[in-house]
């Protein structure tokens, strides 16, 4: 979660600034982090659901429904905030209405951006569960590999309900499930060796889906390109997977090193509050960061980056403390929606019926590890 928060904060220093300023050091960090940040999210999510294949359909479906309900609740709040913002600025309401309807029906271009991950994760969990629940282990891993290979077709697919992200999401979620018991074996001593490898691989990706040598810049970045998994833009696809795997390994080695340090407990708390911090970060990304881009940068030294990291963490932890109650209420609402929806799913006719927890008292059966 720290990587995501810091990566989004870096956007203030180079992405679509009114003064067109681009801090090269900020962009380089962003490009390297973006190469593996979201695959890492899927990997860790899979590790937290290591026993997913042994669960029942209703349980797994309920969790996915909870994730979808939460994403759409946050999306609705974001649309409401955009309506207030537009009302204050005198913008045309019809454009916002059209955007709200279209984004809601298509399951993409969400008002707070980051909830795309919850939508994608909801479908990825179902896909991985189906694979490992119905197929023997060797066949299941062969199917996962085939899905990874099918990523070559991603540029030709629509992005409804984050379809383009399901392929990489499935691969890394499954890897997380399979490697969950080995995360503790990550060696901190490998981090110095992996860091230049990950940086070189990330910077070598020039943005073209099938051509590793040509450059395919993205409109928002001028002559540059980065991995934007949420948009289905990952550059040269084989290089994306290689970089993401090395990047995930690096992140696990660094996490292992920090676990026993003085910042370990604080980082653990951030990890336990990932869901809440992700929701908060969406609003910061959409409503606060555009205002911060108005601030002139001047001559910024490298001191800026540790200050930025400390600042973004402090801001999100402060907002988490202030908004804990409404965020819990939002999750209870999403859980009730999932409860109602799962009630429409036909129950198995054999064996005793599983007890359904009272609405709001269990967040769609998410274990602490999964959260």
Concise structural overview:
By secondary structure, this protein is mainly α.
What's the arrangement of secondary structure elements?
Blueprint: H1 2-10, H2 24-34, H3 37-48, H4 57-89, H5 93-106, H6 116-134, H7 137-149, H8 166-179, H9 191-204, H10 237-259, H11 264-272, H12 274-292, H13 304-342
Helix pairs in contact: 1-2, 1-13, 2-9, 3-8, 3-10, 4-5, 4-6, 4-13, 6-7, 6-8, 7-8, 9-10, 12-13
Radius of gyration equals: 21 Å
**Oligomeric composition of the shown chains:** single chain
Residue stretches low in confidence (pLDDT < 50, at least 5 long) are 349-359
Strand content: under 5%
Distance, first to last CA? 12 Å
Encode the helix/strand succession as letters: HHHHHHHHHHHHH
Q: Kindly state the mean pLDDT as a whole number?
A: 89
